[in-house]
Amino acid sequence: MTVEERFERIEHITAGLAEERNKDREEYKTLWRDTERQIRELAIHIDEVDARLGNRIEQLGNQLGNRIEQFAAESRAAAEESRAADARLGERIDALVSAIGQLLPEGKK
């Protein structure tokens, strides 16, 4: 093989390597663009999910607040009924003690 043939072969191999490198570079650029697009889409999706989640948390918070207010009102009503029942029971006990007190002196006679 002559020197000229060797140079031609080297130039051919070098050209093939350069072409392969250019193809790889274009493929990497395409992959990078696709990756950036997917990252943007994911960021948009995360923002949408975050907004929906925020709205749902707010709804649940409002529902919980309403339920707490309802429970507090029911508790106040139950406490009021309990105080009224306690007062009635106190009156009945007083009446019973009074009646027993009236019966005792009559029973000794």
Walkthrough of the structure:
This protein has 109 residues and is mainly alpha-helical. The protein contains one helix and no strands. The chain has one domain. Helices cover 97% and strands 0% of the residues. The longest helix is centred in the middle third of the chain and has 106 residues. The model has no long low-confidence stretch (mean pLDDT 92).
Q: Tell how many strands the DSSP assignment holds.
A: 0
Mind describing the biggest β-sheet? none
Strand % is under 5%
Mean pLDDT: 92
Query: Which descriptor suits the 3D outline?
Result: rod-shaped
Radius of gyration, taken over Cα atoms and rounded to an integer in Å = 46 Å
Domain tally: 1
What sequence of helices (H) and strands (E) makes up the elements? H
Structural class: mainly alpha
The total of helices stands at 1
Low-confidence stretches: none
List the helices and strands and how they pair.
Blueprint: H1 3-108
List keywords for this structure.
109 residues; mainly alpha; 97% helix
Give a brief rundown of this model:
The protein is an all-alpha fold and 109 residues long.
